[in-house]
Amino acid sequence: MPAARSKGSALPFDASRSLLEAFAINDRINQFLLENLPEEAWRADPPTGKGRTVAAIVSHMHNVRVMWLKAAAKGSKIPDQLVKEKVTQSQARKALEESRDALTNVLQSALASDGRVKGFRPDVAAFFGYLVAHDAHHRGQITMLARQVGHPIDQKTMFGMWEWGVR
Length: 167
Known about the structure:
The chain is mainly α. The protein has a domain at 15-38 and 75-157. It is built from five helices and no strands. Helix 1 runs antiparallel to helix 3, helix 2 (54-72) runs parallel beside helix 3 (89-112) and helix 2 runs antiparallel to helix 4 (124-148).
């Protein structure tokens, strides 16, 4: 079977390059959601009074990335964790970029060597899947919470989060 080719490219399909690009797209979708999140939704209390605010959810997303970096990237520069009670949208967006960059290095290293990520099993492909699933789960929570607190994400943004080909 011939190698798959990227649209408009003469290069053969490269799974490592594709995984790294998909991880970058995943993060651009996080950024797209936060760019389009109504400011009023950021710290709005959940309707039941229990649970996380959007600020706390985004802090958690970044802080879990930092947790994995501490396990997998010892000796590397690891971003600081976020304090959910104090973080601004701008700070959170910058922190997500920093943790994305650091995790990209972990993914690149594993893809270029034995395919293993220290502290995670079974391999780098599963780690990639975990990272994307974790972010997607919390994007869903953010969109639902924004609606519940009376500041829903607009339809253009909701559909735009699925446009991986243009992000």
